[in-house]
Amino acid sequence: MSIFKYLGISAAEAYLKYQTIRFNTPDAYNDPYEMQVRFKSKVEIEASYKQINFHLHGNSGCIDQYLIVDDSKHPFSLDTSVYEDICGKVGMSCFSESESKIPDNVLMWAHYAESHRGLAIKLKEGSFISSILNKVNYVTSTPMLDASILSESSFFVSDLYFKSTDWEYEQERRLAIPLSECDTLDNKDIYGFPIHIHDLPVKDVEMIFLGSNASSELLKLGYEFHQKFGIPVIKQKARSDRFGFMATASFGPSLQECIELNNHYGIK
After folding, report:
1. Residue 256 and residue 64: Cα distance in Å, rounded?
2. In total, how many domains does the chain have?
3. Does 70 have pLDDT greater than 90?
């Protein structure tokens, strides 16, 4: 499996220049149901029971046992501040998993790389960052969890990674880090949310793919990035004969790597 990080224009420029990516709090995401998991209990829970400790990396491995399908035996709803706690303490960055060795998800390019004007970062297989990503669970209805999960010593933030199946095309994997480890820029985004950034180490990056509509300025930054770090940078172009992309410029790959990429794209 390959792991990609799609970036829009300004985020792409920031990564090529400074090797940083943005980490959002859940309330800044584009899904109004983001991490809005309902907690229900078989018994009424005392307020003292609501103190929650959570872990950022890994998952419980047994989330299915806490999912409630029929809530008739769980009549009590738990009003917990876990969502607010996470929004105040945790930043998240989204990646996408793919069976392809190139970023060929047209919707991801359109939605998260500003209509193919940005780039996609490919992580190295077995890299540290890829090893601590956690998958998002796609479900058909808003999830309910047994509130007893909050009392476990191994409650993980990733246990709240649920999204509607409408988002399944993303095949999302998430990286969560403490906001205290991020730098916060002076300016805010267009929606008024703070911009938290953290480095994405180049040692974890295998290759950079520039979108088919990337500007000459981004291409220049891609070349300078390759010159500085020696990481291959590929410029994509939309195919004219069928849906898909082809490589039109490359910085760095060996001849054999170029041949393999061309074979994947179907270039003769």
Report:
1. 45
2. 1
3. no
Closest CA to 251 of 237, 268, 236, 234: 234
Q: How confident is the model at residue 48 (pLDDT cuts 50, 70, 90)?
A: very low
Give the 3-state DSSP-derived string for the chain, with helices as H, strands as E and coil as C.
CEEEEEECHHHHHHHHHHCEEEEECHHHCCCCCCCCCEEEECCCCCHHHHCCCCECCCCCCCHHHHECCCHHHCCEECCCCHHHHHHHHEEEEEEEEECCCCCCCHHHHHHHCCCCCCEEEEECCCCHHHHCCEECEEECCCCEEEHHHHHCCCCEHHHHCEEEHHHHHHCEEEEEEEHHHCEEEEEECCCCCEEEEEECCHHHEEEEEECCCCCHHHHHHHHHHHHHHCCCEEEEEECCCCCCEEEEEEECCCHHHHHHHHHHHCCC
**Which domain range does residue 231 map to?**
2-265
Tell me how crowded residue 262 is: count the other CB atoms within 10 A of its CB: 14
> 98: which 2 tokens?
């793919």
User: Residue 232: pLDDT above 60?
Assistant: yes
- C-beta of residue 225 within 8 angstroms of C-beta of residue 20: no
* pLDDT reported for residue 154: 64
The contacts of residue 215 (CB under 8 Å, 6+ apart) are: 9, 117
The contacts of residue 57 (CB under 8 Å, 6+ apart) are: 132, 134, 156, 176
Q: Residue 208: beta bridge partners?
A: 121, 233
Angle between helices 216-229 and 9-18 (to 10 degrees): 30
